[in-house]
């Protein structure tokens, strides 16, 4: 008999979710993690990022309070205090992850695991056999090869900088670049963001992209489009970044948020004969199985939809399939998602551009307005909301929002879209007044066809 029914390499969101669910169905499960239990989401991603978003947003809140009669007095932000509080909480969360694994009956092992063959894993000198092995090793920031790139940081380092920079240049136009631009700008850091193409946030709805860019600029971020970094040099004052337009930007830190790559090197994939795609991701079928029958993979190391809740979903589907006689294929359609820019973005379903490709005819409903709160604060920030409707069956196929609480709303809009709600049903839903969300059920007239 093998040592384990399931052995998981990687203690992040996907690996832990699968391990715990499998153990709850009686499987004998082992899990190895070389870093901190909880993975990217807990230690270098979603959770610390959200803390920084909250922290940086207080500046706006203090400013806004004046419009409501408050005198807040002088406020001052202390970066080390924030970093220490954040780190303390992450340590607590790691403890919870370890406790939950233990209580679930999962054998957690600290170390670096690597496949030896289709049914065994090495951790240092130790060898473990398993009927099934799950690769859940996540991803890692990618940086292009440029002269002086070693002077730059990635999101991994951004959470623990010894001091807050006075000036930062952020390279990239995706989730991470835009979120960190908002964070540093909120802390009062002089923030320049460079994006190599026409408009940030490729893949999202174009209205959302343009309005996000507009709002980011209004809030003080110097977003520069169609420009990239060429080289970085150290100087007496910090770092000098030369752009493709020949400008030289001086900064205290340069953050590259230029994508992430699957962490699949040196974990024995070749030894076990596991195929990878051209990006280095483990190639899997719809049930997360690799080309080797006993080896599966979930989460960012498969480069499907690289989001924590998706990795969890994939992991749980796999455990149900393998250990509960309840076959489940992960559903990657209509995944709600949020980008914690300031203001934040919430979205689910197709962008207008995608819908125009997939549907014969679409109706678009949209609105942009100043939210009630800011009529007294004087802040110029707006809210934008948009519904994309398939004219053939009146179904709402896309909901997009930028504005306060958009992330929270996208979760519930996700339920509506999943349930196949029609525009008529949105219209029949009674509004909650006065809220921003009510606009989603009161946009009666299409703006374009
Ligand atoms: P993204 O893939 O979203 O963005 C990468 C950005 O870097 C793009 O703008 C890309 O440009 C640019 N880029 C890539 N290569 C280069 C290069 N050589 N030079 C200059 N620019 C370059 O990756 P992120 O790192 O922002 O995020 C990784 C993943 O993490 C996301 O896909 C997302 O799934 C997840 N994530 C989710 C969050 C959330 O849910 N809120 C938050 C943060 C991350 P181009 O568009 O032209 O390719």
Give short descriptive properties of this protein.
21 strands, 3 domains, Enolase-like, domain 1, 449 residues, alpha/beta, FAD/NAD(P)-binding domain, 7-stranded mixed β-sheet, binds NADPH dihydro-nicotinamide-adenine-dinucleotide phosphate, 24% strand, 5-stranded antiparallel β-sheet, globular
Descriptive overview:
With 449 residues, the protein is α/β, with parallel strands linked by helices. The protein folds into three domains: 4-140 and 261-323, FAD/NAD(P)-binding domain; 149-258, FAD/NAD(P)-binding domain (3-Layer(bba) Sandwich), CATH 3.50.50; 337-441, 2-Layer Sandwich (Enolase-like, domain 1), CATH 3.30.390.30. The protein contains 13 helices and 21 strands. A hairpin with a 5-residue loop joins β17 (337-339) and β18 (345-349). The longest helix has 26 residues, at 79-104. The model has no long low-confidence stretch (mean pLDDT 97). Residues 144, 171-177, 179, 195-197, 202, 228, 257-260, 306-307, 337-340 line the site of NADPH dihydro-nicotinamide-adenine-dinucleotide phosphate. NADPH dihydro-nicotinamide-adenine-dinucleotide phosphate binds next to α6 and β17.
């Amino acid at each position: 008999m093998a040592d384990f029914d399931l052995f998981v390499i990687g203690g992040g969101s996907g690996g832990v979710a699968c391990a715990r669910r499998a153990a709850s169905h009686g499987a004998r499960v082992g899990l190895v993690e070389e870093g901190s239990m909880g993975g990217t989401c807990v230690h270098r991603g979603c959770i610390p990022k959200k803390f920084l978003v909250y922290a940086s947003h207080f500046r706006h809140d203090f400013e806004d309070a004046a419009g409501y009669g408050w005198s807040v007095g002088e406020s001052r932000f202390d970066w080390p205090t924030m970093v220490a509080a954040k780190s303390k909480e992450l340590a607590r969360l790691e403890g919870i992850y370890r406790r939950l694994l233990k209580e679930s009956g999962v054998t957690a092992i600290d170390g670096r695991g690597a496949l030896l063959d289709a049914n065994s894993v090495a951790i240092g000198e130790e060898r473990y056999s398993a009927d099934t092995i799950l690769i859940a090793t996540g991803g890692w920031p990618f940086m292009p090869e440029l002269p002086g790139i070693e002077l730059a940081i990635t999101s991994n380092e951004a959470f623990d900088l010894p001091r807050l920079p006075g000036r930062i240049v952020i390279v990239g136009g995706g989730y991470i670049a835009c979120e960190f631009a908002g964070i540093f700008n909120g802390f009062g850091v002089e923030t320049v963001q460079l994006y190599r193409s026409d408009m940030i946030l490729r893949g999202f709805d174009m209205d959302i992209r343009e309005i996000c860019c507009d709002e980011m600029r209004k809030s003080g971020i110097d977003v520069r489009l169609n420009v990239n970094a060429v080289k970085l040099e150290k100087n007496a004052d910090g770092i000098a970044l030369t752009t493709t337009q020949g400008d030289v930007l001086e900064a205290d830190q340069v953050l590259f948020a230029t994508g992430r790559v699957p962490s699949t090197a040196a974990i024995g994939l070749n030894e076990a004969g596991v195929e990878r795609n051209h990006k280095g991701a483990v190639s899997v079928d719809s049930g997360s199985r690799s080309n080797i029958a006993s080896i599966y993979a979930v989460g960012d190391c498969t480069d499907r939809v690289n989001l924590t809740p998706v990795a969890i979903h994939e992991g749980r589907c796999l455990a149900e399939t393998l250990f509960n006689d309840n076959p489940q294929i992960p559903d990657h359609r209509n995944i709600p998602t949020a980008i914690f820019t300031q203001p934040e973005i919430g979205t689910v379903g197709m962008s207008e551009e995608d819908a125009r490709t997939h549907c014969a005819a679409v109706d678009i409903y949209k609105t942009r307005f100043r939210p009630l709160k800011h009529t007294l604060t004087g802040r110029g920030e707006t809210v934008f909301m948009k519904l994309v409707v398939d004219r053939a069956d009146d179904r709402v196929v896309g909901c997009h929002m930028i504005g306060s609480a958009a992330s929270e709303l996208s979760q519930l809009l996700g339920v509506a879209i999943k349930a196949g709600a029609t525009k008529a049903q949105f219209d029949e839903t009674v509004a909650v007044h006065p809220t921003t969300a009510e606009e989603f059920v009161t946009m009666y007239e299409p703006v374009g066809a």
